[in-house]
User: Fold these one by one.
Assistant:
Number 1:
Amino acid sequence: MAATGGCTGGRRLADALRELEVDRAFGLPGVHNLPAWNALPQQGIRLIGVRHEQSAAFAADGYARATGRLGVAVVTTGPGAANTLAAVGEAHASASPVIVIATDVPSTLRTPGVVRGSLHETSDQAAMFAPVTKATLTADSPDDIARVVRRAGRIARRPQSGPVYVGIPADFLTAEAADPLPAESTEVIHRVDVADLLQAREVLSTARRPVIWAGGGALRAGAGEALGELAECLAAPIITTYAARGIVPPDHPCRASNPVHTPEVGALWDEADVVLAVGTDFDGMMTQNWRMPKPPTLITINVDTADAAKNYPPDLQLTGDAREVTENLALGMPRRAGLTELSRRLDDIETRVRRRIRREEPQAAELLTALAETVPDDAVLVSDMCVAGYWIGGFYRVPAPRKLAYPMGWGTLGFGFPASLGVAAAGGGRAVCVTGDGGFLYGVGELATAIQEKLPITVVVVDDSGYGMLRYDQTRGGLPHEGVDLVTPDFVGLAKSFGVDADRVDGFGRAFRRRLREFTRSEEPNLLVVAAELTPPLNTSPRWYRR
Ligand SMILES: Cc1ncc(C[n+]2csc(CCOP(=O)(O)OP(=O)(O)O)c2C)c(N)n1
């Protein structure tokens, strides 16, 4: 029944989102979800319109990664909802707290068990989301909207965080909805077992060569400072996964700056007698598909016991919040000798790796130097699945937590530019997006969003006129180039046609550095095309050294 004077379901949706401290969302309207476009702004939620639903979910993910807060996408029924799936899958694989709010066909037009053929109808919209979310929730009445949205927020944020689907039959948004019940508090508190904690402290303090392996769960829990302290006590190197890059500052004495795919850093793992793994599941991309040997002793810290144990069997598991457990572990940990030698060794590894990059791939060295010199401290570097992005994911010195967003994860091409919309809309600093020409074309229409919303984004398109990574694979395999060489548009002209300032340079040399500096100091969105072809780095699978 349409509301006649009381509150609508749309208002309940907006209120529930406000309770979750949501103040911006990303979406695309349709006849079904149109009431949300009025209801959300009325409650102070800025609903940013994008040009494709996939971008709405990527932007929500980018927002969540940059801020640690909930990212929200608002999309319409059927194709609108389906268009988000790849981006929701990326958020799922990267444990990003995202809520996708999708309308469904009006309850009044549904016949259970039958697809009648009303606009945008599917047999089971929620089921499409099941494999790529933590939970799928559907409101069963207008009154139920507040409950499902609150619940979605709790589930999305609770570690291990991740995306949640919320389905709302379209008629519920305009129907009258009763006052919601008071919000329940259902915080789950894990208390780590004290005997296990003492045992872990004993094993670590007597280890000969301990190593700390930090994953995305550690970063999201804010465990960086505690990990840094623990590493100093133990004189243990900290190896980070892609998701944990920036967890300790680049000048921390224990940081292994480069990825574990470089043999020198891999050797730290091989030599370890005890590994402490925090907030990680040891996925295939980090472990060279599990070719890294199981360490003699593995201790894990994770909220999810099964996730912690699924790839390398742990000898001891500490179940709980990564920060809390790490802080407890560090308390009373005796300080061991060896920090100076460790730091010297890590510096030496860093020097050798950088020297090798300069020798073997001078263009990548120039790119990394240019980024280090020009990207402002508060900016977030957002990289796509492109060769330049793989260099960044592995070798860029990330200055702080949440200053790199990298879709590995699920390995989702097309993430970079639309995720940058969310990063920039968060207001914490500029988004500097590095993407290939192929990946950029996935979301090129978002140039319109960037200019309309005046979002501070610099897009660096590395134009090699093709799917460079796959061209490399074909060349390596001695195969002719099929499907990998692309006609690319005049990106500068294209950007300018949207009103976005743009320029093109050759290579990553001085002209690139100068323009990047200028562009990243602007208030406006802009785009810098770089004609360059890079060789993939050691952290890409064809170049893994463990065979
Ligand atoms: C959604 C999706 N589709 C396809 C791929 C496979 N893929 C990985 S990298 C890549 C090429 C990307 O080309 P471009 O953006 O131009 O970057 P480059 O490799 O040239 O640096 C492709 C097609 C993927 N990872 N994700």
Number 2:
Amino acid sequence: MGVPLPDQIQTAVVTGAASGFGAVVSRALHKAGFRVILSDIDEAAANPLAEELDLASETAVTAELDITKPEDFKRVLDKTVARWGSVEVLVNNAAVTQAAPVMEISPEDFNTVLTANAGGTFAGCQIFGRHFAERGYGRIINMGSLAGQNGGTATGAHYAASKGAIGTLTKIFARELAPRGVTVNTIAPGPMDTPMVHALIPEEKMPGLLSNIPVGHIGDPDFVAEMVARLAGPDAGYVTGACWDFNGGLWMR
Ligand SMILES: NC(=O)c1ccc[n+]([C@@H]2O[C@H](COP(=O)([O-])OP(=O)(O)OC[C@H]3O[C@@H](n4cnc5c(N)ncnc54)[C@H](O)[C@@H]3O)[C@@H](O)[C@H]2O)c1
């Protein structure tokens, strides 16, 4: 119970781990010595990375987890605890990213995105947070976004509002769980060099995007993933309820 022993392999569950930033952060956590549960709505898509990290399925395994289903968080938690005894880290990474003009977003679409992104993070923080609090130790890292701070540019109001909600949920869970040895932080990147950004922004519009970013380039997902791994470590216990900005100077506090 409490802070893990130095020789204990800690287990991290990552949502949306099959592709994009989820895959990058899973790699970084594995490299940092964590056992990684690569969960995704599309479990099969996570197989190649799991096999690449550990063909023996001891330190990298896949799981089916749809963030819109709280029972999926519970099942993955229970199965992981049954096999390895505990979970120490949750990275709420998966999200639905949509772009649409605000006046054209239907109430249904708004609710769908809010439910998936903010609702999924809420379920993850609550379900894993209970396990962490019982053990007196845990690390939760929530993927927010610059869009949650400045309203977004390339993404829609539903996405931006969901990311704003994730920043608020982070603070609420951080306050609730701080006395139990559990930290909760938000990562807020601007555009990173990931497939999703290239899908949203066509190549011909990239120079326009870059000219608006003070540092003149988009973000390196490996660097952001290393920060997630740092926040996931036992020595990160004094950092909670914080929002970590990676935006090339696009938005300053
Ligand atoms: N890429 C960026 O530049 C950027 C910037 C700011 C924030 N973010 C945030 O980082 C996170 C990852 O972004 P990305 O670019 O890798 O996204 P992505 O869309 O490329 O990948 C999302 C992953 O989540 C999975 N997924 C989708 N719906 C799911 C569901 N209901 N349940 C479980 N898994 C589901 C997908 O299968 C996919 O593997 C998101 O939270 C996103 O908002 C990304």
